[in-house]
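Inputs:
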Amino acid sequence: MAKKGELSKTARASLAQRDDKDHITGRICARCGEPINLKELFPVKVLGQGMNYYHKNHYTLG
Ligand SMILES: [Zn+2]
């Protein structure tokens, strides 16, 4: 049962990272030029250019 406890600690740490609302991906929005938080990241594959990144609600404006 001790091993089970260790596993849940690891899982909890992993969940805590995913829940960080201020996490910045380092991607810049192709529409507004602002950094994009992980929860707002919307990657779009563009032929000949590779990946573009938008805020989710900015991509739908276009
Ligand atoms: Zn944007």
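Residues 29, 31-32, 34, 54-55, 58 surround zinc ion (CB under 6 Å). Flag for discussion at group meeting.
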